[in-house]
Design goal:
Blueprint: E1 3-8, H1 15-28, H2 31-35, E2 37-42, H3 48-58, E3 62-66, E4 91-96, H4 99-105, H5 109-121, E5 125-130, H6 135-140, H7 144-147, E6 151-154, H8 168-182, E7 187-190, H9 198-204, E8 207-210, H10 217-226
Parallel strand pairs: 1-2, 1-8, 2-3, 3-4, 4-5, 5-6, 6-7, 7-8
Helix pairs in contact: 1-3, 1-10
This protein binds 1,3-dihydroxyacetonephosphate.
């Protein structure tokens, strides 16, 4: 598997700013950099349609992802975005259970387990975010066969958006624990990853989930170019 680098824009950027980001990034990034990696970008839901048009126009090896998915199927769930709502779009990954969803929206491990199911049922690979405090609880609530199809993202809350990226030795320990509990699933790291520290994490994981350092197209390009 190529190393996965996923840009998570969170609730940043208007539709226009997202398009400008894609235009700039896709025009400037070299195909040789993209061919070694699995690069995906998760803008806001409302920017997905126009971002896909820019991607199709410029034609580079970059996929689209989503930051969340409804825990329910299509139906009477006002305000939720179901897998069916997204059909027709080429969505590769769904970030599920991000700690910001837990903190600000009261999402529980049981909700996240349902999101894994919805994601898989709609042909979207779940990126299951965990921190050490609830890792075992979370894995225990997911069907084993479904868990084997996830990519696990270790995102220590203390490292998210703080500039205090986690110690690589600690990340390595968590990777080993996840493999013991969930089997040989791919594991990525997220939390203050930038162009200067990315390679440390790629030595012990299968990729990175990048927030702040993805928001500027040039900075994200430098991060990808720094991957050795
Ligand atoms: P930062 O890169 O801003 O720390 O965000 C990490 C993250 O939460 C990615 O999902």
């Amino acid at each position: 598997m190529s190393k996965l680098i996923l840009a998570n824009f969170k609730s940043n950027k208007s539709i226009i700013d997202t398009n400008l980001w894609f235009e700039k990034f896709l025009k400037n990034i070299d195909d040789s950099v993209l061919s070694k990696l699995d690069v995906s970008v998760a803008p806001s839901f409302v920017a997905l349609v126009s971002a896909e048009k820019v991607l199709e126009k410029i034609g580079k090896n970059v996929s689209l992802s989503i930051q969340n998915i409804s825990s329910f199927p299509a139906g009477s769930y006002t305000g939720a975005i179901s897998g069916q709502n997204l059909s027709g779009l080429k969505i590769k990954y769904a970030v599920v259970g991000h700690s910001e969803r837990r903190k600000y929206f009261g999402e529980k491990s049981s909700d996240v387990a349902l999101k894994v199911t919805q994601s898989l049922q709609n042909g979207i690979m779940p990126i299951l975010c965990v921190d050490t405090e609830y890792l075992e609880e979370q894995f225990g609530l997911i069907d084993k066969k479904e868990l084997e199809k996830c990519i696990v993202a270790y995102e220590p809350i203390s490292a998210i958006g703080t500039g205090k990226n986690a110690d690589v030795g600690k990340v390595k320990g968590v990777v080993e624990k996840v493999k013991r509990l969930a089997g040989n699933v791919p594991i990525i790291y997220g939390g203050s990853v930038d162009e200067f520290n990315i390679n440390e994490y790629l030595m012990v994981t299968d990729g990175a989930l990048v927030g702040t350092a993805s928001l500027d197209a040039d900075q994200f390009q430098r991060l990808l170019e720094a991957v050795s």
